[in-house]
Amino acid sequence: MIRHMKKAVYIAVAIAAAAVIIIFTTTKSSHSPASHYSGTVGDIRVFVSLTAPGKKISGEYFYAGEKALAEKESLSLKRSGENRYRLNIRLHGKRLKGSFTGAIGPDTVNGILTLTEKAAEALKVPPESRYPVFLIRETPLTVPPPDHRYERPVFDSVIKSEGIRFATAPGYYTEYAIDKTEKINYAKIITKDIFELLIKEDLDLYLDFYRPWSDTLSKRPVILMLHGGAFLAGDRKTPTILRLSDYLCRLGYTVASADYRLGFNPLVRESMERCSYRAVQDARAALRYLVRYAPDFGIDTSAIFIAGTSAGSITALYTAYLEDHENFPSVAGKGIFYWSDMGCLDCSGNELESKYRIRGVINMWGAMHDTAIMDAREKIPLISFHGTGDNIVPYGYDYPFRNINSLLTRLLMRKLYGSGPLHDHACRSGIPNRLFTFEGYDHEPQISEGGFNHNLDTLFARCRDFLYSNLAPDMTIEGPARLHPNDPLPVYILPFIPGCKFFWEATGGQVLSEGLYKNQTAILWTRTGRNRIKVTAITPAGRRLETEMVVEMGKGRKTLY
C-alpha cells in the first residue's frame, strides 16, 4: 500500500508541475479559460486541466491508477527563472513542493520534475529522484461525418469492365441472350436444340465487373450476381442484372456478373441436377478468382455476398449452403448414360485455391430440392423475394414449370422448395432471414407488360437494407455497466474487425486507448452518477457503425472536469 501511495504521489507531483508549466506558457495566447493535457510523468499516465487568469496559474489533475474512479487534486505554480518553475500540489490532503526544468512549446512540454527534500521524504522516495515529463495538448476528437455510403446512392456513375475470363470448363453453352425486358418463353426454349446437348466442348467463362466511379476506397464489398433463365437461357447482361448491378455500385459496392454453363436434357431428371451442379462449380470458381485478385479489383474479401434471379438464385443458394457430402447422387456419374464423375464443388473451372466466406445470400424467386442443405451451423443470412403466383419456380413446395404441362413436369422433374418453405426452415434453424412476397405475381415479379414495374424499387430498397445490415458484426460493447469508485480500472471491448477505425468517446470519463485501430480500451471514470460510452467504428470498406453504453458509477465522489 505504501509503495502504491509513493507512486501515486510522485505522479501527481509530476503532473502538477508539467501542467503548471503549460499553463504559464499559454497565459498570453490562451483563448479559453481551461485547457486539457495528457502525457506521462515517469511511467504514469496523467491528465491535467489548467487555467491561467493573469499571473496566477492554477489547475487540476488526476492520473490513471488502479481504481475505476480518479481522484481530483489541485496545483499551482510560479516562474522562477529561464525554463524553471516552482510548483505546489495537493495530494491526499498534503501540500507538496517541487520544481520543473525543461523546454515548453505551444503544444508539448518536455523536462524533468524534481521534488524538494521534504516532499521526497513525505513520499518516501530518494531525495534526488528525477522524473521525466512529457505532456501534449489534447485536441477534440474528430469523428468523420457520415458519407451515407451503402445507405443511399452516393456515386453518379459506374465503371464496367467486360469479358474478364475466370475459368474454362467442359459444357454445352454459356449464353442464350434475352435482349428485351419481357417474360421468357420457357416452353419454346426447352423444345429448341435438344440434340445440341449431345456434344460438349471446353468453354471459357467470363464475368463483367462493376465498380463506383471516383471511389477512393481501396477495399469494397462485392456481390457475385447470377442471371436467371432455367439453366437454358439468359446471360450476364440481362436487364434485371444490369439494373441491380448499376444501383448497387452507386451505393458503393462492387458487383461481378458471371457466366455459368447452361444446357440440359429436359427428358432426363438427372441431367438438370448435373446442370445445376455445374453452375455451382462455376460460381465457386468465380468467387475463387475474385478473392485471388481482390487487390486488383479493390475487393474487401471479408464482405462477399452472392445474389441471383430464378436459376441464378438456385445456384446462389447452393453455392452458399451446399457442401461436398450433400451432393446430388447424379454428380458421381455412372447410370445408363455413363456420365463421368463431376468432382468436388471446387474441382472445376480453375486451379485457384482461394478461401472465402459468404456473408449473405439474396434469393430472388429461387428454390432448393432439400431444405436440410441449409445447416443451422452455417448461419449465413438470407433474404428472399418471390411471387405467390409463380408457375416457373414454386413459391411453396411443388413441381417447377407448371405453366408448361403439369403432367409432363411431374414425370420429368422433382419437386422444389421455394422461398416460402426456405424461409420457414431458416427460421426453425436460427438462420437470420427475411422473406418478401409479391402477392399474386408470377415469375419475374419485377416485370409487367411494358417493362419494369414498381416491384423493382422494392427489390432495390430491401437489398440495400439487407446488405447494409450484414456488412459488420454486432457492435455491442462488453464491459462493466455498474461500478463502485474502488473497483478495478474497467476495460471495454468491441468485436475485432481487421483494419477498422474505432473512435471511442466517454462522457464523464477518460479514454485510455492510444490509436484509432484499438477495439478495446480502459476508461478512467472521472465523475459519479450516470456516464456514457459512445463508439463510432468505420470499417475498411467504409461501413459506419455507432453504438452506445450507459455506465453507472457509485456516488460519494466529487465530479471531475
Q: How would you describe the shape?
A: elongated
The percent range for strand residues is 25-35%
The first-level CATH class of the largest domain is given as: Alpha Beta
Q: What ranges have pLDDT less than 50 throughout 5 or more consecutive residues?
A: 1-6, 8-32, 557-561
- Category by helix and strand content: alpha+beta
Total beta-strand segments = 27
CATH architecture of the largest domain: 3-Layer(aba) Sandwich
Helix content range:
10-25%
- The tally of helices reads 10
Distance between the termini: 27 Å
Radius of gyration: 33 Å
Please provide a written account of the structure:
Strand 1 (35-41) and strand 2 (44-51) form a beta hairpin. This protein has helices spanning 2-26, 117-123, 186-190, 239-251, 269-292, 294-297, 311-321, 406-412, 419-429, 455-469; strands spanning 35-41, 44-51, 57-63, 73-81, 84-91, 94-104, 108-115, 130-137, 158-171, 201-212, 220-226, 254-258, 299-309, 358-364, 382-387, 397-398, 416-417, 433-438, 447-448, 451-452, 482-483, 491-493, 501-507, 509-511, 520-525, 529-538, 544-553. The chain has 10 helices and 27 strands. It has 561 residues and is an alpha+beta fold.
